[in-house]
Design a protein that fits this description.
- The protein has 448 residues and is mostly helical.
- Helices cover 70% and strands 3% of the residues.
- It has one domain: Growth Hormone, Chain: A (Up-down Bundle).
- α1 crosses α9 and α8 crosses α16.
- The radius of gyration is 23 Å and the shape is flat.
- The two termini are 35 Å apart.
- The relative contact order is 0.14.
């Protein structure tokens, strides 16, 4: 339990640091005079550095112990957090944002650490609780606008403690150091190292399997899109609905909370009914919600015989409907994130660090590419709703791949039913066959 509690607290803080530019980007845009594309790059480079080290970080946790790696990462991240508060130009700020993004790699370390200490029949719940640390994305949403207003621009102690938006990364620097000390002092000093003594080649071998890459695409949908929207929504509310930053941040938190706090529910559901069924539910909800949100606002103009025109079928998503649909997407993402990671210790019990690191890395890379796609598609179409068209298409691709895989497995299990679409008196209905799990088959498709 101490491992779960402290890893979750540490991950919550690291996640807040990783995504702090979602709120800080608005006052930064005003101070430095940034365009929307420049602002998207500021967020994206932080997300990028929080993705590219997840695989080696997960492997390091398996080989050297999760506690040791996690504490080291907390201490290292405190340095660029302070540097962000000192930036005086967009170029230096972009560089420091990239460095502080290292915080995002703590996820794969925590996953490996928690998995090593919890039994398999409870790992879905435990990993779901740990993953709820995603709620850290809302920490800056809540405290950021208030601190920016409360702390004078000149700061305190003659500028030693910076003010305005710069106070937030300075505060995170202090909290990161405190968290590193607390985690070292109050968690077990004994390390469980599933990867100790194994060669690097043997630890990387599972990454050749197609299912690892398929899980990664699922995670792009439920986590990469979550990271992208968590950073993008404050700007969306400000630009599309004309809201002040404080209100935009609060409404974004309505999306972040279920996308984070429902992760334990997703783990519990995956333990009870199976991760793949949960993924079907989540993808369906996301397709419906994003399909509505991607429709452009406007109306149809009819030319009447008398030379006049009529406007019919006006369409516009108001603030309430928009927030509700984004909330539903957040619920689906929160549950789906746990379902994806429920697969990993089941299929790869001795390689959670490596496999979880790769899945997390590629998923987080989705959080790097998607904000850029949002910015460029919006610039090209002049329609902010194109943000959700991007999410719709990525979700559709992932769901189609998953369904094709499921159908293929069922055909391998019951080849005599492959072309049976109608009921006859000699062959059982296809829907009477048991729903088979991928783990029941070896690489040739034969039942193991």
């Amino acid at each position: 339990m101490p491992v779960l509690v402290w890893s979750t607290l540490g991950f919550t803080l690291m996640f807040a640091v990783w995504l702090m530019f979602g709120v800080l980007g608005i006052p930064i845009r005003e101070e430095f005079g940034l365009s929307d594309v420049q602002l998207a790059w500021l967020t994206a480079v932080a997300v990028l550095n929080g993705a590219i080290w997840r695989l080696p970080a997960g492997i390091a946790a398996d080989r050297f112990g999760g506690k040791r790696v996690f504490v080291t990462m907390l201490a290292i991240t405190a340095v660029p957090a302070y540097l962000v508060s000192t930036a005086t130009s967009f170029a230096t700020l972009l560089f420091y944002a990239f460095l502080v993004g290292f915080a995002g790699n703590s996820f794969s370390v925590g996953i490996a650490w928690v998995s090593a200490w919890w039994p398999q029949n409870r790992q879905g719940f435990a990993l779901g609780v740990f993953g709820a640390g995603n709620v850290g994305a809302s920490v800056t949403k809540f405290i950021g606008p208030a601190l920016i207003v409360a702390v004078p621009a000149a700061g305190y102690l003659g500028g030693l403690v910076p003010g305005g938006w710069r106070f937030v990364p300075f505060l995170y620097m202090v909290l990161l150091i405190a968290m590193a000390i607390g985690m070292w002092a109050f968690t077990p000093h004994r390390e469980i190292k599933p990867g100790s003594g194994r060669s690097m080649k043997s630890m990387l071998t599972p990454l050749k399997q197609a299912r690892v890459w398929r899980f990664s695409l699922y995670y792009v949908v439920v986590f990469g899109a979550y990271v992208a929207l968590a950073a993008w929504l404050p700007k969306y509310y400000v630009d599309v609905y004309g809201m002040p930053l404080s209100q935009a941040a609060l409404l974004t938190a309505i999306f972040i909370f279920p996308a984070s706090l429902l992760r334990p529910v997703g783990g519990w559901m995956s333990d009870r009914i199976g991760a793949r069924k949960v993924m079907y539910i989540c993808f369906t909800i996301m397709l419906i919600a994003s399909g509505i949100l991607m429709m452009p606002y406007g109306h149809i103009v009819l030319a009447n015989p008398n030379g006049t025109t009529s406007e019919i079928l006006p369409w516009q998503v108001g603030t309430i409907l928009f927030t509700l649909l984004v909330f539903l997407m957040g619920c689906a993402m929160g549950i789906g994130k746990a379902a994806v990671y429920k697969h990993i210790p089941e299929y790869f019990p001795n390689d959670v660090g490596a496999v979880g690191g790769l899945v997390g890395s590629l998923g987080a890379l989705g959080g790097f590419f998607l904000p850029l796609l949002f910015a460029y598609t919006t610039s090209f179409t002049m329609l902010p709703q194109s943000t959700f068209f991007v999410i719709f298409m990525v979700t559709l691709i992932a769901m189609v791949w998953m369904h094709v895989t499921v159908v293929s497995l069922l055909h391998k299990a019951s080849p005599e039913l492959s072309n049976k679409f109608e009921h006859d008196h000699h062959t059982p209905l296809a829907d009477e066959a048991p729903f088979l799990d991928e783990s029941e088959f070896d690489k040739t498709g034969a039942r193991s």
